[in-house]
Amino acid sequence: MPKRILEGLVVSDKGDKTVVVKVERTILHPVLKKTVRKSKRYHAHDENNAYKTGESIRIIECAPKSKLKTWEVLPREAN
């Protein structure tokens, strides 16, 4: 099964080698038929502490690295 890739905003970089990423989704409400924004926070492994609060990043699923971390930050693409 392919690994999921999500895009979100770094909301915390206080942990060592860890960032907290907020991922927002839009869904259609089943009864009201309105578009609703839902968000979830993921703890992701950042080996080099390269990302800071406010940056937009992509994360990918990985094997569990700790109790909360099951995601890794995808490195920036070289331009």
From TrEMBL:
Keywords: Ribonucleoprotein, Ribosomal protein, RNA-binding, rRNA-binding. Pfam families: Ribosomal_S17 (PF00366). It comes from the Bacteria. Gene3D superfamilies: Nucleic acid-binding proteins. Signal peptide: none annotated. GO terms for molecular function: rRNA binding; structural constituent of ribosome. The keyword NADP does not apply. CDD domains: Ribosomal_uS17. InterPro entries: NA-bd_OB-fold, Ribosomal_uS17, Ribosomal_uS17_bact/chlr. One of its GO terms (biological process) is translation. GO terms for cellular component: cytosolic small ribosomal subunit. NCBIfam families: PRK05610.1, uS17_bact. Belongs to the universal ribosomal protein uS17 family. Part of the 30S ribosomal subunit. One of the primary rRNA binding proteins, it binds specifically to the 5'-end of 16S ribosomal RNA. HAMAP family: Ribosomal_uS17_B. This is Small ribosomal subunit protein uS17. The gene is rpsQ.
